[in-house]
């Protein structure tokens, strides 16, 4: 368990904008920052970060909390893991009350897979640098590729000895469990139940998560045997889904944000060589076709992608249609072609950084225009093929969500295709109308026939109940004003928080999370502490954090023009704190009394015994007096 002083140092050092900015492209708006949600696919930003409060709120998914909560939600960290990630980022030594046994066995299955993958990366890296076989085969290969010692260490490159059980045997000896070795894909089970190494005699490329943890591997053979696959990659697992991962993104994300551009290449070596040359905003799709999830990962950091192709014309044509997905996600795509016989790796190794950059700047071409040029050359003078090219180009343009950008491409392509701009616009409109119709048909669900309804129970009404709202209002006021002094009715030396807790001592909260919050607040007061909002924002209980952030966050900000130009003033609840605080307390009490009265009325209707009816009726009359007293008090406070 991490000690309280360590947690406090981590929280004090953490800049939530800086932390979330590593994962989401944020723009300043007023006192807050906004960006596209990393938890939902959206075109309009609804993700807000408040540096003053130290919280984020995602209005698309409803998620919210501190920097710790963000890491837990996005990277599926546990609470201690998120704290350790922040501690590492801010160079804070972590003190724990008991010695960690992470390198042995974890209850958390996902964490166990992470741990065994991290151990494997360390084993392969040490095998590369320290054993004779690794040095003579693996290290010499990387050196021949031009990789420096610093680069090899940075990317944690490694070597798996050419033995059946070199890694597996050592891992089992160290106490790692068979099931995690197999599930991670590091070991393979024989028919007799014994295990052997998957990556024998291969140089190893660890694949890192967005936060830098090793989650998978790519292993390249150095043998010339054609029956041996060139690459062996980790299978899908609980921690590794290849369609959601970009190789090198962990090392590239800061540069991508700063350069506002992402270079997309094909292989591991391309990423490493270009990165080593000082061009760090480069990633690869890990040997798979580009996926929507990978595009969205890039889209969180920049809206500009530059694809760096090698000289393989057949490969380029095969990938063109798939790249329409990038346009559909609203990103700008440029393409750079390297001379025949060169890929980004070989080109930068041979010509150096400055020539590489100049080649990219001089040869980058917008994807739509590049695609048009490629397909026109392929069609030649065949009118049927040319008509097909025109339709394919318009299909690509139709995927661009920005109408202005699409119209610019129509104009450019009309010249290149030598066809009237109006004809292209007409075709574009037809495609968009067809898509809109198809989408509306998908979203339309016909009403069921009366006979169908007989087979289903009516759904239970899920309207928001007012008592829930009143309970959450109490939480909000405790968070915002609990540490302020009471300034009404001559009350002195009393804080609003303890006052509210005392006034609510006879109220039982229905919502479990609100009840838990009030109880935590009460305990802190009894311990002589007046809890601040940060105490709850950094609470390990996720439900508490969600409640607090929802109470503090707002999706909208009032424009200054309301005050300065239009002289429109919104009532300030702080102007009459007596009305705000007592109003909330007695509104909640009135709701609770109303619920009691409703239950008593039901009991009266269901009871036939005269004596019982008299008892219930007396209780009912007493509660009616309480209700009237509260109503009178509310009126005098609010209307005064």
From TrEMBL:
Entry's cofactor comment: Binds 1 zinc ion per monomer.
Entry keyword annotation includes rRNA-binding: no
Domain named Toprim: residues: 260-341
Keywords on record: DNA replication, DNA-binding, DNA-directed RNA polymerase, Magnesium, Metal-binding, Nucleotidyltransferase, Primosome, Transcription, Transferase, Zinc, Zinc-finger
Cofactor names: Zn(2+)
Broadest EC class assigned to this enzyme: transferase
EC number, UniProt record: 2.7.7.101
Database matches in Gene3D superfamilies: 3.40.1360.10, DNA primase, catalytic core, N-terminal domain, Zinc finger, CHC2-type domain
Reactions it catalyzes: ssDNA + n NTP = ssDNA/pppN(pN)n-1 hybrid + (n-1) diphosphate
Family that this chain belongs to: Belongs to the DnaG primase family.
Function: RNA polymerase that catalyzes the synthesis of short RNA molecules used as primers for DNA polymerase during DNA replication.
Oligomer and partners: Monomer. Interacts with DnaB.
Protein name per the record: DNA primase
Organism: Mucilaginibacter litoreus
């Amino acid at each position: 368990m991490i000690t309280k002083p360590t947690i406090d140092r981590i929280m004090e050092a953490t800049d939530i904008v800086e932390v979330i900015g590593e994962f989401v492209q944020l723009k300043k708006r007023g006192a807050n920052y906004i960006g596209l949600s990393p938890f939902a696919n959206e075109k309009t930003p609804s993700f807000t970060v408040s540096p003053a409060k130290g919280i984020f709120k995602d209005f698309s998914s409803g998620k919210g909390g501190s920097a710790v909560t963000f890491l837990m939600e996005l990277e599926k960290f546990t609470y201690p893991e998120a704290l350790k990630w922040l501690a590492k980022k801010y160079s804070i030594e972590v003190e724990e009350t008991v010695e960690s046994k992470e390198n042995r066995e974890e209850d958390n299955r996902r964490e166990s897979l992470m741990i065994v993958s991290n151990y494997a990366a360390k084993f392969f890296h040490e095998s590369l640098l320290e054993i004779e076989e690794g040095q003579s085969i693996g290290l010499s290969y990387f050196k021949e590729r031009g990789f420096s010692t610093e680069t090899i260490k940075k990317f944690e490159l490694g070597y798996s000895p050419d033995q059946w059980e070199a890694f597996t045997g050592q891992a089992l000896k160290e106490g790692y469990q068979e099931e995690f070795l197999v599930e991670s894909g590091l070991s393979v089970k024989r028919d007799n139940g014994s295990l052997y190494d998957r990556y024998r005699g291969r140089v190893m490329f660890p694949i890192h998560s967005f936060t830098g943890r090793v989650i998978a591997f790519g292993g390249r053979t150095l043998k010339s045997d054609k029956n041996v696959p060139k690459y062996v990659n980790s299978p899908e697992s609980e921690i590794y889904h290849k369609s959601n991962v970009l190789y090198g993104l962990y090392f590239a994300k800061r540069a991508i944000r700063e350069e506002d551009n992402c270079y997309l290449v094909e292989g591991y070596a391309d990423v490493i060589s270009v990165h080593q040359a000082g061009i760090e905003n480069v990633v690869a799709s890990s040997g798979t076709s580009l996926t929507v999830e990978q595009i969205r990962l890039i889209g969180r950091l920049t809206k500009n992608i530059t694809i760096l192709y090698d000289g393989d014309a057949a490969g380029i044509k095969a990938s063109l249609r798939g790249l329409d997905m990038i346009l559909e996600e609203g990103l700008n795509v440029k393409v750079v072609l390297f001379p025949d016989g060169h890929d980004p790796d070989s080109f930068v190794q041979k010509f150096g950084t400055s020539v590489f950059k100049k080649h990219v700047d001089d040869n980058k071409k917008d994807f739509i225009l590049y695609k048009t040029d490629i397909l026109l050359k392929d069609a030649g003078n065949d009118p049927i093929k040319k008509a097909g090219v025109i339709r394919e180009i318009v299909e690509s343009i139709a995927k661009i969500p920005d109408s202005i950008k699409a119209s610019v491409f129509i104009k450019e392509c009309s010249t290149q295709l030598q066809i009237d701009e109006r004809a292209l616009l007409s075709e574009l409109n037809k495609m968009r109308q067809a898509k809109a119709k198809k989408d509306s048909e998908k979203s339309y669900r016909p009403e069921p026939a009366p006979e169908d309804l007989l087979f289903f129970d009516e759904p239970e009404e899920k309207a928001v109940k007012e008592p829930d709202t009143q309970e959450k209002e109490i939480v909000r006021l405790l968070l915002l004003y609990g540490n302020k002094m009471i300034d009404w009715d001559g009350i002195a030396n009393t804080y609003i928080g303890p006052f509210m807790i005392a006034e609510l001592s006879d109220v039982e909260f229905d919502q479990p999370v609100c009840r838990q919050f009030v109880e935590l607040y009460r305990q802190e007061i009894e311990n002589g502490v007046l809890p601040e909002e940060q105490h709850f924002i950094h609470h390990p209980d996720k439900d508490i954090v969600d409640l607090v952030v929802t109470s503090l966050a707002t999706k909208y900000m009032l424009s200054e023009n309301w005050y300065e130009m239009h002289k429109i003033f919104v009532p300030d609840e702080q102007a009459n704190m007596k009305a705000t605080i007592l109003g909330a307390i007695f509104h909640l009490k009135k709701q609770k009394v109303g619920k009691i009265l409703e239950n008593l009325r039901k009991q009266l209707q269901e009871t036939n015994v005269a004596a019982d009816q008299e008892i219930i009726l007396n209780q009912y009359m007493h509660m009616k007096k309480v209700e009237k007293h509260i109503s009178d008090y509310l009126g005098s406070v609010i209307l005064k």
